[in-house]
Fold this protein.
Amino acid sequence: MTEFTALSRRGALRLGAAVLTIAAAPKVWAQAAAPAAPTGPFSLPKRSYEANALEPHIDAQTMDIHYNRHHAAYVAALNNAAKDNGVIAKASLADLLADLGQLPDNLRTVVRNNGGGHANHSMFWEVMGPGAGGAPGGDLAAAITRDLGGFDKFKADFEAAGLRVFGSGWVFVTVDRGGRLAVLPRPNQDSPLMEKQLVLFGNDVWEHAYYLKYQNRRADYLKSWWNVVDWSKIGARYAAAKAGTLAI
């Protein structure tokens, strides 16, 4: 046996041992860090709960990607647009969406998609929480009975509206300053704020909100979502709407 052949065989044995060691080692799935969002007047709101807090109804991976990737992308796009457009940099998000039709054509689509996405998701994180679910009480429960036919009928109608959204979108409950409620589905990242309506709460029916856990079973996601709805937070939003202080 030549010295080269012996060395080659020893190298192959070492390589084989290394491969076996790697194969036997526990797998650690690492997700690349999200790119830093450009700084500017808009920022991700801080959630009051961790990504895994809504399990098993919404899984931690979905929450992480949804918040750190999708929502962060809307914020980054808005901040990029604000660099060269003072009208975006100086206005509140609610005012930008309410006055969408007054924006120049080259800005309207940017604000519609990304401003709508930022507003919708900021609301979304706020109205959910761990240990939530159940049913609303007080003035909000009375308004649901008065305007939406009672809690059970409202939930069924809300879920049906979410299922009717073709492709991507949201299903909202709007509230006027008199406290009256209505169910309103909207496509893509459109928001009732664009129609000068106030958003009490809403559910995201884009596939990125549920597909990792529920695949194409949107109906299952819509039903499970009630378990993470924080009615105390929504009740506070209802009071703010009637007081004229609810923004997004």
Summary: The CA atoms of residues 12 and 18 lie 10 Å apart. Residues 60-83 form the longest helix (24 residues).
